[in-house]
Amino acid sequence: MFAPAYLVARFLWIPLLACWAAAKGAPRRATLWLPISVALAASVWELMIPASANIRIDLLLVAPLLMFADGLGAILLAVSIRKAPSAAARGAMATAAVICAAACAFFVVAYFLSTKRSEDQYREFVDGSRYWFEAAFSDDASQRAAFGDLEGTRWAGYYVAEPPDPVHRHLIVNRDGDFFVFGPDFREVRGRAAPDAANEAVLAGHILQYGARVGEVAVRDLGGGRASARIADLGTPHDVAFTKRPPPRFPAAVPTAGTVTFKGVFSGADTTNEHLFVTQMWLWEAEGKMWGALLRQGFPRGKDMESVGQRFMDVKCADAACTSMQVKVQDDAAFTFEWDGPDRLIQKHGYQGRDVVLERGEVIPGFLYDRAPLATPEANRKWLRSLHPLILWKAP
Asked: Which structural domain range is residue 348 located in?
């Protein structure tokens, strides 16, 4: 709602300029130039500076100036209406006052609703990060799927920051040197590390994001279940003391009146010499309706890459027996999968003219969508919408 309010306020100079012309001879007519000039300046600013570069200035400076100019202009115009020399001038002044007041009110409401929406989205993000963390530690199988083997080397295991750290709270290191760091809001950074050739007690590696190195981590084994870690996330080194603990457990609640059924996860990959194009689908069903999550993403072979292509999807069956189903994700055309038995789905001519074949099971593990609650469709969909796991995977 903020975007349309901002757009309206920037172009108020057009109707206000007309009111200025119609209010000829009215005292304090020049008051109209306050909102007119600010709106004109905002319009010129938007034309000169790309939106991606000025969003903070828009929110913190330009938008408040527009609100102030419109609100003050409405007040000054309202107290000047009676002194206008003619009915036409009074009408123009009154119209201008109403326009300014309405724009200011629209802006205030838009700010309030946009702020609330932003807070709701942040809470949903934090909830989704916590959902994945708790699902990963719901049992031994989930932990292994999410993090790999947490035994076998001097560094492998689950650690908590002691004393508690305001930035990094949890550290997980697996046998292969993959590490996972979680903050208090369960925001995750992850990467790969290897023993340091210069110091056998140190495991050193890089934080990876979208296949690129964006930071460094060095974990030093201090013995006795203690470790220290230097984490340079976003370029700022941060030293944290960790203590090894038994992994936590957050058992999934047993549904008392669950109506949702998990139909399974199905996946497949189309290969070239350089890439794998992975399609992976999770399906749930309740009361004759189906929905789920879908991953469609290409991966360069032999290179670490995060899986970020998963999206929430709606499913419509083509007939009562659901021999085929239409899958729809946001901002994409619908496509059809046909069942070829209970464990196999086929999309005709789905990838570069070839059939996409999905079979029961996962090509890429660790998403944990299959741990979604089965109590009600609403609870299941909320959990899925909130969950946005980033899976670091290397295509073979």
From this structure: 261-394
Q: Give the end of a domain, one of 245, 269, 297.
A: 245
| pTM over 0.90, yes/no | no
Whether the bond between 163 and the residue before it is cis, its omega within 30 degrees of 0, is: yes
- Rounded Cα gap, residues 277 and 148, in angstroms: 24
Helices (DSSP H) in 201-338: which residue ranges? none
The token duo for 307 is: 């899986």
Residues 271, 348 within the same domain: yes
Same domain, yes or no: 229 and 324: no
The reply to whether 193 and 220 lie within a common domain is yes
> Distance between CA 41 and CA 47 in Å, rounded?
10
Which residues lie below 8 Å from residue 225, measured CB to CB, with a gap of 6+?
Answer: 243, 244
Which two tokens mark 65?
Answer: 């100036």
Q: At what angle do helices 140-147 and 87-136 cross, to 10 degrees?
A: 110
Q: For 192, how many CA atoms within 13 A lie in the half-sphere containing its CB?
A: 13
Collect the ranges in the chain with pLDDT lower than 70.
Answer: 1, 50-56, 235, 256-257
CATH of the domain at 270: 2.40.128
Distance between CA atoms of 5 and 16, rounded to whole angstroms?
16
